[in-house]
Specification:
The complex is a heterodimer of chains A (223) and B (230). Chain A has 223 residues and is mainly alpha-helical. Chain A contains 10 helices and no strands. Chain B is mainly α. Chain B is built from 8 helices and no strands. The chains are: A mainly alpha (223), B mainly alpha (230).
Chain lengths: 223, 230
């Protein structure tokens, strides 16, 4: 056990986890909107919207995240008109490519979580709202969304942790996130166990915080 | 389409073998995972605090740390660990373990953590009366497990195990970083030499979709088989 290496690598890894957290928060932020959009589409009676949303979530949940990142980072750069358009400013950066891939991926999972949450809302709530003469728009925002958020909290907590682990794939497109720096230290020192313990502990600490945050929110919004 | 031709001109046969490799790694990893689950599920359900702690440590650490980090640990640390064990038996030559074994072991340990949770949940949701009835009838412990608990447990576990299978199948894409030629690695090689990454990575996505689709069909059949009578 090389304690000195563990102590020396700790600040470097901690520094790298800032990028991990940035990737996580940005992709969750965009992913939530994508998820909500597709969940609403999935519940609509329009056949095309419904099937499109189904196909989207099937596609992103059925393929590995690594493939998705590679298609966006390596694949899209090959298309001529993307390289000529304003999109290239974003798509040439591995950072944004990773965020786009993560957001689309977590969006697919989030849409499934939200959809099942919306479906478990008792019909009586909506009917009660309707019979009180509340418009369906307000029923959606003031009744359905708050209940759905509460219902989906435990599953969404799992999704956040899965996404936290997913951000490690950013290291495959040259980003130096926590896993990227850990791999760099391992390959220069050949001390995998020590680095694994330090990097793993940082990841576990982050999952621990997410886990407790979700538990706290669950208690707060208990009804 | 000529990019996918079989033989020397295209990448069809290479990708076909790569797909077989992905299936082989997934199945091996899943089986190794079952072995780990077989060890750790009893630990998690044990009455003793210390055994509980070991079981919980395994599932918490593996499920809380990125898969890629676990793979790097095995990839860089695997042969070192084997050589250390071998040196205790007086063997000091350099040992290199092949990527297939390292990869399926790394993925197997990850898959095992998920399987452990599934089995634990399934056993816990079996009615206590079943255990008590078996005890009252004087049935031996292992017969009780094989004939009474296991069949009921499988029925409850299969839907969740199918999720574990999907996770395992998708995780195998990560061992491409170790150089094992499975779908992802083969696509990477093909994309590099033809300069057509979009096509090959999209094709890889299609292959994975096909695998998940077919395995879902198969698992659904199993599910029907094991839920007969319910």
């Amino acid at each position: 056990m090389d304690l000195e290496l563990m102590i020396n690598s700790f600040p470097k890894l901690l520094n790298a986890s800032v990028i991990t957290l940035k990737l996580l928060s940005l992709s969750l932020f965009f992913g939530l909107f994508i998820g909500l959009l597709f969940a609403v589409m999935r519940m609509s009676k329009n056949f095309i919207l419904n099937k499109f949303s189904y196909g989207y979530s099937y596609l992103f949940r059925g393929t590995p995240l690594l493939v998705q990142i590679f298609i966006i980072y390596f694949g899209f750069g090959q298309i001529e008109f993307i390289r000529d358009s304003f999109l290239w400013i974003i798509l040439k950066e591995p950072y944004w490519c990773a965020i786009i891939a993560f957001a689309l991926n977590t969006g697919a999972y989030t849409s499934e979580i939200l959809r099942s949450a919306f479906q478990t809302i008792k019909k009586g709530y909506i009917e009660a709202g309707k019979s009180l003469g509340i418009s369906s728009k307000i029923i959606f925002y003031k009744i359905q969304i708050p209940i759905a958020i509460r219902q989906s909290l435990p599953a969404y907590g799992n999704e956040i942790i899965l996404m936290l682990k997913g951000t490690s794939l950013a290291s495959t497109v040259t980003l130096m996130d926590l896993t990227g720096v850990a791999k760099y230290i391992i390959s220069t020192t050949f001390k995998p166990i020590e680095v694994f313990i330090v990097a793993g502990s940082i990841y576990l600490f982050m999952t621990f915080i997410v886990h407790n945050l979700i538990k706290f929110l669950e208690r707060k919004y208990n009804y | 389409m000529e990019l996918l031709a079989f033989g020397d001109t295209g990448w069809g046969d290479e990708l076909f073998y790569a797909t077989l490799m992905t299936i082989a790694v997934s199945i091996t990893a899943m089986l190794i995972g079952f072995l780990f689950a077989l060890i750790f599920t009893p630990l998690k359900l044990s009455k003793y605090k210390l055994l509980n702690l070991i079981g919980n440590f395994y599932t918490t650490v593996i499920r809380g740390v990125p898969e890629l980090l676990v793979i790097y640990l095995f990839f860089f640390g695997g042969s070192g660990a084997i050589m250390f064990v071998a040196s205790m038996f007086g063997y000091y030559e350099y040992i290199e373990i092949n990527a297939f074994i390292t990869g399926s072991f790394a993925i197997g340990i990850i898959s095992g953590a998920y399987s452990t949770e599934v089995f634990r949940g399934a056993i816990q949701s079996i009615d206590k009366g079943q255990f008590e009835a078996a005890k009252v009838l004087g049935i031996k412990k292992y017969i009780q497990f094989y004939k009474i608990i296991l069949p009921q447990m499988l029925r409850l576990a299969i839907p969740n195990l199918s999720n574990v299978w999907q996770i395992t199948l998708k995780d195998t894409s990560l061992i491409s970083v170790t150089g094992l030629v499975e779908i992802m690695r083969q696509s990477y090689i093909a994309a590099g030499s033809t300069r057509d990454p979009l096509f090959f990575y999209s094709f890889a996505a299609v292959l994975y979709l096909l695998l998940t689709f077919l395995s879902m069909k198969l698992i659904n059949r199993l599910e029907i088989k094991y839920s007969r009578g319910f």
